[in-house]
Write a structure and sequence with these properties.
single chain, about 270 residues, alpha/beta, TIM Barrel, 3-stranded parallel β-sheet, 9 helices, about 15% strand, binds zinc ion
Length: about 270
C-alpha cells in the first residue's frame, strides 16, 4: 500500500488549483529539439548570389535584414522581392544603417550617418518608412527587426524601445545560445555573428541549442564574399547538417519562430 504524505498531497492539490506546472511545458513544433533562425544582414550581393541558392536547394527559409539605401538592394530590388515570394522573410534593418561613431573601432561610421548625431524621432520615421517600402515589395504587415550594429541609442536615447510595437520580434543584442526558454524574450533576442569560422564551428552552435532545448540565432553578413564573411563551404556544411537532421531542428524565418514564441512562450 502507498502511504500518502499529507504535506505532499497538499502541495499537489495546491499546484493543481493554481495551475502551476513544476516543469516547463514548452515544446517546439513537430517534436523538434531546437529552433534555428538563419539571418543575413545588410542586403549584400553574396547573399543573393550564394546564400539564397544554397538555402533554396535544401528548402530552408531564412530572414534577410535589408539596408534599403544599399546599392545591392536598390539595383536588385526584384530579386529581393522574388525571395519573399519564395517564402523568405524581408526584415527591417532601417534605410541608412546608422551606427554609433563614438564607440571603439567605429572609424568607418560616416559623420552624416552617425547614430550619436541623430534623434529618436528621426529613427522612428526611418524605421516606419522602411516598413512601408518592404510592404510594397512583399505585402506583409507582420515583420521583424534587427538593430543595426546592435546600437540602441540615437543621440543618447533608446530608439529601439520606441519602435518595438511595430514588430513581432527583434534581434537586439549580442549573445550566445539561451540556456532555457524563460531567458528568451522575443523582442530582445541575442544573436551570434559568425565571421570566418568553419562549418564544424557553426554546427557546434546548433548542437548547443539542441542540448539546451532552446534556439540559436545566427546572424551572417557575407557568404563567400563581401565582408564579415564565412565561406560558401562552411555555410553549405551547416545547411547539409541541418538537412540531415530535420527532425531535430526547426529551421524557419524569425517571423514564424516569433509567432510561435508569442503563442507558446510569452
Ligand atoms: Zn547591419
Amino acid at each position: 500500500m502507498i502511504k500518502i504524505n499529507k504535506k505532499c498531497c497538499f502541495l499537489f492539490v495546491l499546484l493543481i488549483t493554481l495551475d502551476v506546472h513544476p516543469q516547463s511545458a514548452f515544446n517546439w513544433p513537430n517534436g523538434a529539439k531546437a529552433a534555428v533562425s538563419l539571418s543575413y544582414d545588410d542586403s549584400l550581393n553574396s547573399q543573393l548570389d550564394n546564400a539564397i541558392p544554397a538555402l533554396n536547394h535544401f528548402g530552408f527559409k531564412a530572414s534577410f535584414y535589408l539596408t534599403l539605401s544599399s546599392p545591392a538592394f536598390t539595383s536588385r530590388r526584384l530579386e529581393w522581392q522574388a525571395i519573399a515570394v519564395a517564402g523568405h522573410e524581408l526584415g527591417n534593418h532601417t534605410i541608412h544603417h546608422a551606427c554609433r561613431g563614438s564607440l571603439a573601432g567605429r572609424e568607418w561610421v560616416d559623420a552624416k550617418n552617425d547614430l550619436d548625431n541623430k534623434t529618436v524621432d528621426t529613427l522612428i520615421n526611418e524605421v516606419i518608412q522602411a516598413n512601408e517600402i518592404l510592404n510594397k515589395l512583399d505585402g506583409e504587415n507582420i515583420r521583424t527587426f534587427t538593430v543595426p550594429c546592435l546600437d540602441h541609442l540615437a543621440g543618447g536615447k533608446d530608439y529601439v524601445e520606441k519602435i518595438a510595437q511595430l514588430f513581432i520580434g527583434i534581434k537586439a543584442k549580442e549573445g550566445s545560445v539561451a540556456s532555457n526558454m524563460k531567458a528568451i524574450k522575443v523582442k530582445n533576442i541575442a544573436v551570434i555573428g559568425p565571421v570566418n569560422i568553419s562549418g564544424d564551428e557553426l554546427i557546434a552552435y546548433v548542437k548547443n541549442a539542441k542540448a539546451q532545448g532552446t534556439m540559436v540565432n545566427l546572424t551572417f553578413h557575407g557568404i563567400g564574399g563581401d565582408y564579415l564573411s564565412i565561406s560558401n563551404e562552411a555555410h553549405q556544411q551547416l545547411l547539409q547538417y541541418l538537412a540531415d537532421n530535420k527532425s531535430i531542428y526547426w529551421v524557419d524565418t524569425f517571423r514564424n519562430i516569433s509567432k510561435y514564441l508569442i503563442e507558446h512562450n510569452e
